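Sample entry (327 residues):
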Amino acid sequence: MYGGPQGIGVDGRVGTRARLTFHGRAGSLSGIHVVNVFLTLATLGIYYFRAKARVRAHLYGQMEFDGDRFAFHGTGLEMLLGFVKALVIFGIPFAFLRWGPALLVLEGLPALAMSFAAYWLVTVFIPIARVGSRRYRLGRTSWRGIRFSFRGSTWEYVRLFVTGSALTGLTLGLYYPVFATRSHAFMTRNSWVGSARFDFDGRGRDLYVAYLYAVLLTLPTLGLAWFWFSAARRRYFWNHTSIRGARFRCTITGGRLLRLRLANVLILALTLGLAWPLATVRNARFICRHLALDGDLDAASIRQDPREAAATGEGLLGFLEADLNLG
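Predicted structure, serialized as tokens:
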């Protein structure tokens, strides 16, 4: 019926456990990285967007799920245009609100009002950027030639994010597990691969014990306890994610995550950042090693159902926060 412990059977079903595999090597990524750095410097940064697309295409192309590799179809030109749009939509207004009082020699209530407006501008645009970036990245990713997509409402996530941020602040952080889980649920339930939708059945209250342990042990462990919470959160999120009855399984632990991060920091420090390709490959292998899909997924029934996606959110995210990762 299907291909045993790992594999796709003759009827196109994936079961019973299918793993991600990363085939990339630091050497091949290093060659791309060296060229990217040189051309980015030579073009005064303009090539950066093309460089970003090349790296992403290489990494996705080295990742395999049950015999078929992923592909990234985004282009540097799309990202450049998205960055320019983000600069106009967010960058210029934020710069005016942030530094306008000093330039206009404003004091008192007008200056305070502009600073307050700048804060809320960032608060609103962070969720806009996250949704836009996810919509673009999924829309430019494929597996077995089938495109992914994101179909969530931007303004629905803005409401969720602003409300969750406010409640987290008002409760001195106690609302965070619920907020993080609801945010992840929104992103997951609105993600599709072709005609197949991802689902999530987690509850934020299930993370409270791990979260409180991390808070209480922050000082005694000099902050290292948060690696265990991060690992617990990733396990919980993945273990409660499914697609058409097949459920993901994650085996990341705090100790393994800590060793990965400390080794990467050491590698980058000793090489003055030159070993970035090695650290990147190590991260990708780590994720793939600890993630699998359990169950019987009828991959042959998944049909193409592409959706349009602009790169503006990708540009906004560059202003507001660090790059997303696969974990």
